[in-house]
Design goal:
Chain lengths: 703, 324, 161
């Protein structure tokens, strides 16, 4: 069994006492229910609220005229650019147009069904693939849209072997088990929010700007998030709506999105279409790599899934060319989802690498080893730390890859064909500032306070571990308080950035405490305080990457990323088109691992997400109606317990002091990368069918 | 959800009287009805809680098996006689829904569940003749990948999702119903209706009637039987396609068979022709079995994107026969 | 409210008498009326298992249960499992095996696991996987959940059946 720190927040979560946003005391609060558009475009011409207003328990129905004036704000921190209710123009189906406020949830929910809307100029929604590809602009474009070096056309022409193929990934929804929830309460011009968000800092800044009050007037609580995976990173419309409703009515307001609303008001991972061309010499050295992409986006915001990003640092190739485009469609706004960019992107690249290996008659692990770059192939800059080769070798060893018979369909067990496939994984390493306050009392007990919210990644245990390691005290002596915007700011629990930033900040706070005490790590803290004549000591620690703000992986002259390898065994019942993953081995290099127990859980979670992407998850966008068809967890299926077999997770030694002061990098998203390619590659090995469209469904596999 | 009044009953006649009132719905396990109330698919003024009726027993008699309509799916699946002598029935129950839902859901309610057509189940009313009669069928020219291949009409292309119903059809079971005019007995193969031009009539149950029991005849020969459920997720998912098979064998030669398919029509689809054609074949002769089954698909009319169901259903039927 | 219905339920060993809106589910009643927010609402449609509680000892979905229909029943929620600050063996196994992350599905998982063991459906890893599949964990702590249920079953004697 993997060892490590069990979660200090575990007992509260296990006994039902951990407080999530919807658990805030609501005895005096109004229940809010949103009314949303039922058409994808056109104009809202009338809104009839009289029936709803007359329904029992209804206090008020808010429409645009009732909203206080709202300030301008960019995207991000907003998830979608239009402040809610503010325009006649319909941007997508499921967009809020009114808020019903009633004494109970049952009353609000019923009255919301009584509001009638009229629309004009509604036209059929254009599906993804039938609109123009355009260059995206703005804050939801994370990185360059076009990158290149060398001459790809010449490289392909000079290749002994080349492959070109087009891959697609589906629209997917984050579907955390906790729906978005916000409780808003105004006290004069002070706003208190309990909200399920991945960043209390973003929520605070956004609400302050929208309502024209200073940030210190907005206090956001969010100790626990019941899963976010990206959909709670930015500020979505219901949060300002709850605050506006509370302001207008002078009562606290609780707004919990329904599961259906989670499909249109909290983002999704958009469908992508990608084309990869690879050229290689007969001994498997790349001569050219081209990766182009387009994703479904909304009318506004230009969210861009930068799928080719990883292709710019993954393999040594003299010529690399990438481009990413979007199509502006009448559909809800997409947002980053575990794992953004490299998640869909590496499905394409790593499938193409497998196709190339097959064409070359070369082992796919060997092909990757032959193309290991010494420096960032695009920029020529050094890698801060790159242990892909170690991951590939160790993964192959743990899996027993050397036993693989490369012949297609060579392994069978009863009705089932068995296939082994692999892929490499990588994630960019964005980093962001964080801070923490540390207090030591006269008994030697340590409290760390930070604005971070615990979303499941195990940050409280990580904070304990870093504080204890730096101070040289037992981890049990460290208590962690979090999820309050009054605590020292932490950028957000997303992008796999938290451990680096917060861990480094906690370490700085602990070092500063030792310095103030003139103590050495391991000195009894109570004694040190007594010696210094103190009953309590407080210190603060901050950390930020070079430049002070949020950075991407290529900064400060280094190329900073995480790496891994994933090997899977699939079983395909070709008669019935059924695909199951019986075994997976993942080996990762994601910086120093501070808590192996939680790190293993993260990677198991990621691999399961990859399985979902590969085999199950697809939100059907209904073109005639211009909406996501099934907005529920029976129509949008995610993995259940019985889907997941044996998963072996391990880490290679890695310690990246360029990335962060504690040598850590991010791992939360890395685990979900590459899995879908490994599965598709294993399906090819089992059946000879190359499936380039995710998810791989029964109909793909029926011969 | 509109508000309603709530009444408990413990006597079948009292229940029938209560159900004769307008805008009244019975509630058993509630796992379907509560969903409909929340989506606005149904908006009764009165709910009659029938879980107190004495209809929850499972009896094994020389004539066969009699399952009370209010027996819970989990209890029926765990009943020793069901488990040992009617594998197809136990399997159809255990492969449905989840442990929690099976603890709540009743046999009668299971048969009366409605289609999982995503248009019918949407968060707002979309054009759907089953939901709002006359409103059209958005699925017909929409996403038909999960819809029927048999027996659909221009007015509705949905399938029925009950696993249990498929097993009961293969067992030649009878649905026993009671109304004002007394008892009626409806063959399980005819209980669910093909849509025709009245898709809003989901089953043969009439307004004000109760299902009281399901009877499985002793001569069903269910010892050799199997329920095969094909789905993308390993558990907790409705069938893409399913097959129930009940077989009589002499050595390895099939001497009799009953075969029903799920996920292909708005009723369990019995393959009468195939049942005849497989007699005399060896149960291990897959090509011959497949040919016999495929020959009974003359009526199949696939919709765009669901052609795969033809291949899949034929193979599922053969696999179920061989596993029985 | 005119059509409110008086309901008596025994929740975690305590008799509670309340007037409920017949539309209210047991999830909402436990959370909003009885202050027992340990029970979570994930989907409100029977599709995730987060709201699992025991009614008369059986695991059910509280979001699909109208509170009126629970009249006279004995309800156990996650708050009623541990006593005197001691974790229940299932909770302890979950903690030791790191069988949760965000924790939102966890009360439902724990209640389901308690029932799974009591039903005798925890005799092998595969059996646990199947019988715990009615509880979706989007964080995907599934292997750890299986290990925890197996461990607790061994301790509680449920594995030997
Ligand atoms: C997430 C999910 C997954 C599911 N998966 C499956 C699956 O894989 N396979 C499957 O087969 N099912 C599945 N189901 C459906 C489930 O089995 C049904 O919801 C359940 O069987 C309905 O029974 P109930 O007692 O709860 O019915 P209720 O909800 O109480 O009633 C349903 C309807 O039947 C009527 N009714 C009930 N009993 C009687 C009676 N005796 N006489 C007359 N009318 C009656 C009610 O008035 C109501 O109209 C699933 C359900 C959910 C929510
Ligand atoms: S197929 Fe039937 S249930 Fe589905 S939309 Fe059409 S009428 Fe409604
Ligand atoms: S909340 Fe009840 S099953 Fe999801
Ligand atoms: S722990 Fe997050 S959903 Fe299970």
């Amino acid at each position: 069994m993997t060892t490590g720190l069990t979660r200090p927040d575990g007992p509260a979560k296990l006994t039902g006492t951990a407080h999530y946003a919807a658990d805030a005391d609501t005895s005096d609060a109004l229940a809010a229910a949103l009314v949303t558009t039922t058409v994808p475009n056109g104009r809202l011409t009338a809104l009839h609220t009289a029936d709803a207003e007359a329904a029992p328990g209804v206090v008020r129905v808010l429409t645009r005229a009732d909203l206080p004036p709202l300030g301008e704000l960019s995207t991000p921190p907003l998830g979608f650019p239009v402040p809610p209710l503010l325009e006649d123009t319909v941007h997508h189906e499921g967009e809020p147009i009114a808020v019903v406020l009633a004494e109970t949830w049952e009353q609000a929910r019923h009255a919301a069904t009584l509001v009638r809307a009229e629309y004009a100029d509604v036209t059929p929604a254009v599906p993804f693939g039938q609109a123009e590809d355009v260059v995206p602009h703005g804050g939801l474009v994370f990185g360059e849209t076009d990158e290149s070096k060398g001459d790809v056309t010449a490289g392909l022409a000079a290749a002994d072997v080349s492959v070109t193929a087009t891959y697609t990934t589906a629209d997917r929804h984050h579907s955390p088990i906790e729906p978005h929830a916000t409780l808003a309460r105004w006290d004069g011009d002070q706003l208190v929010l309990h909200s399920s968000v991945q960043s209390v800092l973003f929520a605070q800044a956004a609400l302050a700007a929208l309502f024209g009050v200073p940030p210190e007037n907005v206090r956001v609580f969010c100790p626990f998030v019941g899963g976010g995976f990206g959909c709670k990173g930015f500020v979505w419309p219901h949060i300002p709506l709850a605050a506006a409703a509370a302001r207008v009515t002078g009562r606290p307001v609780k707004l919990v999105l329904t599961r259906a609303q989670m499909f249109t008001l909290a983002g999704h991972q958009p469908a992508t279409r990608q084309t990869v061309s690879l050229g290689a010499t007969s001994d498997g050295r790349l001569t050219a790599l081209r990766h182009t992409s387009s994703n479904a986006s909304a009318q506004l915001g230009d969210y861009c899934e930068n799928t080719p990003h990883g292709s710019t640092w993954m393999y040594a190739s003299p010529a690399i060319e990438t481009s990413t485009r979007i199509q502006r469609l009448h559909r809800p706004g997409p947002t980053p989802m575990r794992s953004p960019h490299e998640g869909p992107g590496m499905f394409a690249l790593e499938s193409a690498m497998d196709e190339l290996a097959h064409e070359l008659g070369m082992d796919p692990v060997e092909l990757r080893l032959r193309n290991e770059p010494e420096v960032d192939p695009l920029t020529g800059e050094p890698f801060s730390s790159r242990k892909l080769v170690e991951c590939l070798r160790e993964g192959a060893r743990r899996f027993g890859w050397s036993e693989r018979n490369p012949e297609i369909g060579s392994m069978r067990d009863g009705h089932e064909l068995i296939g082994w496939g692999m892929a490499a994984a990588t994630m960019d390493s964005p980093r962001s500032p964080s801070s923490a306050r540390l207090r030591i009392d006269h008994t030697g007990h340590v409290v760390v306070e930070t604005g971070m919210q615990e979303i499941g990644t195990g940050l409280p245990a990580m904070v304990q571990a870093v504080a204890a390691e730096t101070l040289g005290c037992p981890p049990e002596d460290v208590a962690v308080r979090h999820g309050d915007s009054d605590f020292p700011p932490h950028t957000g629990t997303f992008g796999s950035m938290s451990t680096m930033g917060l861990g480094s900040a906690v370490r700085a706070a602990a070092e500063s405490a030792l310095e103030k005490l003139g103590a050495e790590p391991g000195d009894p803290l109570a004694g040190a305080l007594a010696e210094a004549g103190l009953t309590e000591l407080e210190s603060e620690g901050r950390w930020s990457p070079e430049g002070g703000g949020m950075t991407r992986g290529r900064t400060g002259g280094y190329s900073i990323h995480t790496y891994g390898s994933i090997f899977v065994e699939v079983r395909v019942d070709p008669d019935l088109g059924l695909l199951r993953m019986s075994r997976a081995v993942g080996v990762y290099a994601g910086g120093r691992i501070l808590n192996p127990l939680a790190a293993r859980s993260q990677m198991i979670g990621g691999i399961t997400w990859g399985y979902g992407q590969a085999v199950l998850e697809q939100s059907v966008f209904e073109p005639n109606l211009g909406r996501f068809l099934s907005k529920n967890l029976a129509g949008y299926i995610v993995p259940v317990n019985a889907d997941i077999g044996e998963i072996d997770v391990s880490f290679v030694d890695d310690d990246d002091r360029v990335a962060s002061a504690i040598g850590a990098k991010g791992i939360g998203e890395l685990g979900a990368v590459g899995v879908s390619a490994a599965i598709a590659n294993a399906v090819f090995h089992a059946t000879g069918r190359r499936v380039r469209d995710l998810p791989i469904r029964i109909h793909h596999l029926l011969p | 959800m509109r508000t309603f009044s709530y009444h408990r009953v413990s006597d079948v006649d009292v229940a029938l009287a209560a159900l004769r009132q307008p805008e009244t719905q019975a509630i058993a396990g509630g796992t379907e009805l509560v969903n409909w109330l929340k989506e606005g698919i149904e908006a009764p003024a009165r709910l009659v809680d029938i879980t107190g009726l004495p209809l929850a027993g499972v009896e094994s008699t020389p004539d066969g098996l009699r399952i009370g309509a209010l027996a819970r799916m989990s209890d029926v699946a765990a009943h020793p006689v069901v488990r040992d002598r009617y594998p197809v029935l136990a399997q159809s129950l255990l492969r449905a829904a989840s442990a929690q839902l099976r603890n709540m859901a009743t046999i009668g309610g299971n048969l009366l569940q409605r289609t999982r057509c995503p248009y019918f189940r949407a968060d707002t009313a979309l054009p759907c003749n089953k939901r709002v009669p006359g409103s059209g069928c958005a699925a017909r020219h929409g996403d038909t990948s999960a819809q029927a291949i048999f027996g659909w009409s221009e007015h509705c292309v949905a399938t029925h999702p009950s696993d249990l119903a498929v097993a009961l059809a293969a067992l030649d079971a009878t649905i026993v119903v009671r109304g004002e005019a007394g008892e009626r007995r409806i063959p399980a193969t005819e209980f669910h209706r093909l849509p025709g031009d009245e898709p809003e009539r989901h089953t043969e149950l009439r307004a004000g009637e109760l299902i009281t029991a399901v009877e499985v005849p002793a001569e069903s020969g269910a010892e050799h039987s199997h329920y095969l459920k094909v789905r993308e997720r390993v558990s907790y998912e409705f069938a893409v396609v399913s097959a129930a098979a009940v077989v009589q064998l002499s050595g390895t030669t099939i001497t009799g068979a009953r075969l029903a398919l799920g996920g292909v029509a708005h009723r369990p689809w019995r393959l009468g022709g195939a049942e005849q054609a497989v007699v005399g074949l060896s149960v291990s002769d897959r090509p011959a079995l497949l040919a016999a089954v495929a020959a009974d698909f003359g009526d199949a009319r696939p919709l765009p994107g669901n052609e795969y169901k033809i291949t899949l259903a034929q193979r599922a039927a053969v696999r179920a026969l061989q596993a029985a | 409210m005119s059509n409110h219905v008086a309901v008596t339920v025994r929740v975690n060993g305590v008799d509670r008498e309340i007037e409920v809106d017949p539309r209210a589910t047991l999830t909402e009643t436990l959370r909003d009326r009885l202050g027992l927010t340990g029970t979570k609402k994930g989907c409100d449609r029977g599709e995730c298992g987060a709201c699992t509680v025991l009614v008369n000892g059986r695991r059910v979905l509280s979001c699909m249960t109208l509170a009126v229909t629970a009249h006279g029943a004995e309800v156990t929620t996650v708050e009623g499992l541990s006593s005197g600050g001691e974790l229940h063996p299932v909770q302890r196994a979950f903690l030791e095996n790191d069988a949760f992350q965000c924790g939102f599905c966890t009360p439902g998982q724990v209640m389901s696991a308690v029932a799974c063991i009591a039903e005798g459906h925890a005799t092998s890893d595969d059996e646990i996987r199947e019988w715990m599949s009615g509880n979706i964990c989007r964080c995907a702590a599934y292997p750890q959940i299986v290990a925890s249920v197996a461990k607790a079953a061994a301790e509680l004697g449920g594995a030997a059946r």
